[in-house]
Structure formats: C-alpha cells, structure tokens
Amino acid sequence: MLGPVILAASRSDRMRRLISAAPVTKQVVDRFIPGETVTDIVPIIEDLTAKGLELTMDVVGEDITTPEQATAARDAYLALIDHIEDLDLGPRVEMSVKLSMFGQALPSPATALNGEPSGLAPAFNGGHELALANVRPVVEAAAAIGTTVTLDAEDHTTLDSMFAIHEELRKDFPQTGCVIQAYLFRTEADARRLAAAGSRVRLVKGAYKEPAEVAHQNKHEIDKAYVRILKTLMEGDGYPMIGSHDPRLISIGQELARTAGRKLDEYEFQMLYGIRGDEHLRLAAEGHRMRVYTAYGTDWYGYFMRRLAEKPANLRFFLRSMVSK
Ligand code: FAD
C-alpha cells in the first residue's frame, strides 16, 4: 500500500524540497527523465527514432503558481518544436502536455484583476482560458511541422476543463489527442463519446490518487475497466493509443485490434521511457507503431514520484541508492 503514500508525497512541497535536494536522486531520476535541456534530449530523439520507435515528448512541470511560469512552459515547448523541425521527423515525434503547466489551475486574468469571474467560460474556474491561450500556439507550431499534441489527463477535478479545451482545439486542429484513465468511473462514457472518426485517444490506467467516489480502487477492477474501454475504442472510428506496460493488456489490445479488423497503422502502443525498453523494441520489430513517452526538463518531481508510486521496487531502489551513498 505504498503507492497512495508516495502519491500523497508527490503533492507535498516539503517532500519536494527534500527529495529534489538529495545528492543521489539525480542518477535515479535519469532512468525516467533522460535530460534537462533540449540539447540533452535531441540525441535521445535521434537514437530512439533510428531504432524504429516513435516519440511523444513531455517537458516536465505541473502545478505552477504564476502566469509567467505558464508562459515559460509554452515557450519551452515552442523551443522544443523548433529543434524537432530541424530533425524533419514529422508525426513520428509528437508532444504531450499537461494543462496544469499552462496555467489551468491559476485564477483567470479577469478574476485576478477584479475578483469577478471572467464570464468567458462560466462552467470553469481558474485558468481555463489561460491554459487554452497558452497551449494553442504549441498546437499550431506542432501542426506547422506536420505533427500534433496530446493533452495528458491529470487528476479528475481538471478533466471537464481538459475535455473542453480538447474540443476547442480540435475545431482547428482535429488531430489533437487526449488521454482517458481507466480507473475513473466516468471514462466508459467519455470513451463512447471520443470513439469517433478523426479522434486520437490514449487509454491509460491512471496515475493519480483518486477517491473511491470517482474511481475504482482495486487493481483487478481497473484492469477489467481498461479492457472494456479499449474494446469501445477499437470498435469505434477513432485512433486508439494503448498506453500501458502491462503484458496482459498488450496482448489483449492486439487481439481486440485484430477482432475489430484494424490494420497495424490504425492503432498504436505507447510506453514510458525507462520502462520495459526491450518490449518497446520487440513491438516495433513486429511491425507495431510503438511510441515512447519521453520526459525531460528540470521540474521532474511530480513525474518522478508517480513513477515510484507505480512500482514499489523503484522506491526500494531509490532508498537503497541513498543509503549506499
Ligand atoms: P501496471 O500494472 O502498473 O504495470 C505493468 C508492468 O509494467 C509492471 O509489472 C512493471 O513491470 C512495469 N511498470 C509499470 N510502471 C512501472 C514503473 N513506474 N517503473 C517500473 N516498471 C513499471 N497516467 C495519467 O494519469 N495520465 C496520463 O496522461 C498518463 N499518460 C501516460 C502515457 C503513457 C505513454 C503511459 C505508458 C502511461 C501514462 N500514464 C498516465 C500512467 C498510467 O496511468 C499508469 O500509471 C502507468 O502506465 C502504469 O500502469 P501500467 O498500465 O503500465 O500497468
């Protein structure tokens, strides 16, 4: 039951300061986040694509506290896209973004100025418009180099806003993807809505600490929901992206794709950098489209803690490395 404790720590500023400052942390972090700058990450993109893999790039960062940080996040993605353009890889390298990093949880500018709701999007509080305004240029820049952006799913309180931003972006950029999480009760309905022509949907189990009112808590129930939702996506008209390292779900995914009559380029697998790397190569060698979610940057704490929470052995390894230092 370590997972929920680690997830709670992933939201603690005190733990963030302690862990980020620990001298050995960096070498453990590198397994999952293989660079801090665009310059570090370009050779990794070249290496993975040369091996037949595709990528989705995440500039790590979330839970920002000022509009300036949201603008900096936008600019970091724009700089990344500039570098990717030079590599001329088109849709083989796309972006993944977390809207919290683009200002979604901040007070909207109008609210901050006069204490009144902005009136622009009455269904949402906070920085919904700010996140939309910051993410749009990133989606535009990605489209201009022939690739696209997927909106990651964060905790359940952010999802109505995420789906509304997704719908808005798709009016001009229909390729914009989004993520749905099998552990949430709402997701079966979201999947039915999203399994439509032209949509790109990544299905994952879900990585946040969610209450029993909104999410399955039992691993077996989550896996069963994952299969039901994947079946809906495979039988629909969209483009399913199977985001999992779970060997059982990967073979069920292959079987569901076959039964639905999908060709190899009508769905894809996605896994995280640093996790089951041999499996990335095996699936690509079998002719599957295999996309590696590759995170980089300096604000790695939240991303790293979720990777620890997913597998307690990672935490043991991390603690051992601190003790043996
Ligand atoms: P699990 O049952 O957790 O793992 C199956 C096996 O994979 C494990 O037995 C182990 O061998 C290996 N494994 C899994 N995780 C780890 C790890 N951290 N370290 C080492 N080995 C591991 N979640 C969100 O909530 N929102 C998102 O937007 C999101 N995007 C994602 C994008 C991609 C491409 C992927 C692959 C995952 C994403 N996730 C996201 C995380 C996801 O929700 C799960 O937390 C994570 O994928 C672990 O679940 P699993 O399906 O791999 O199955």
Automatic annotation (TrEMBL):
Its cofactor is FAD. Pathway: Amino-acid degradation; L-proline degradation into L-glutamate; L-glutamate from L-proline: step 1/2. It catalyses: L-proline + a quinone = (S)-1-pyrroline-5-carboxylate + a quinol + H(+). It is an enzyme of class 1 (oxidoreductase). InterPro entries: FAD-linked_oxidoreductase-like, PRODH_bac_arc, Proline_DH_dom, Proline_oxidase. Transmembrane segments: none annotated. Its EC number is 1.5.5.2. It comes from the Bacteria. This is proline dehydrogenase. It comes from Streptomyces similanensis.
